[in-house]
Design a protein that fits this description.
Keywords: Signal. With about 200 residues, the chain is an all-alpha fold. It has nine helices and no strands. The radius of gyration is 20 Å and the shape is elongated.
């Protein structure tokens, strides 16, 4: 999403929340909380997927890719609804048009749920695991488990042991679901998953 539009949407959100009731400190705090929440939702989706989902809901866009569906499921329904709500306000859509958009919004969510099964545990837990590993180590461990074997550095092993086995397993589980691996392939991945953990324990 373009930066200027993003800023405008944030301001619209502040105005929208603040004017729903009497102007007081409670509403100001709620407005700030809402704008922070919006920023997190946009960051979670990313520019490419945010644009793709926007096109799908508000225009005659293409089907949402598995990658973007996965991101959408991860950020959650509340984020999906918030982004739609703010855009409806920003565009000043009529009540009739807004109802149509909400139907498309809900359909996009349901379609994504069918195409990408969410983790049985919370998306916040998944996010914490990813943040704990960091991009570099997360990618390195992913390659070791799902692609050709590579050396996991001591630093990345240390990060992996810090986030714990549950996080390691959760990230592997979500990726297996996302990739729609066969049962046979999934078993091979779990063996590699456990081997990486054991190797890091001996570092």
């Amino acid at each position: 999403m373009d930066t200027s539009i993003k800023i405008t949407l944030l301001l619209v959100t502040l105005f929208f929340v603040a004017t729903k009731g009497a102007a007081n400190q409670s509403n100001v705090a709620q407005s700030l909380s809402k704008s922070n929440e919006l920023q997190k939702c946009e960051n979670g989706l990313g520019t490419k997927c945010g644009h793709s989902i926007y096109q799908h809901v508000f225009k005659a866009g293409k089907e949402v890719s598995n990658e973007c569906c996965s991101r959408l499921i991860t950020v959650g329904k509340d984020c999906h609804d918030l982004l739609t709500e703010v855009t409806i306000v920003y565009k000043r859509l009529s009540e009739k048009k807004a109802r149509e958009i909400w139907q498309k919004n809900d359909k996009a969510w349901e379609d994504c749920k069918k195409s990408v099964a969410p983790s049985p545990r919370g998306s916040s837990e998944l996010q914490n695991c990813e943040n704990g590993l960091g991009t570099k180590c997360g990618h390195l461990i992913y390659k070791n488990v799902f692609e050709s074997k590579t050396e996991v550095s001591k630093d990345c092993c240390s990060r992996l042991l810090t986030v714990g086995k549950d996080c390691h397993d959760l990230l592997t589980e979500v990726t297996i679901v996302y990739k729609r691996l066969t049962e046979k392939h999934a078993k091979e991945i779990w063996l590699k998953n456990d081997k990486v953990w054991e190797q890091c324990q001996t570092e």
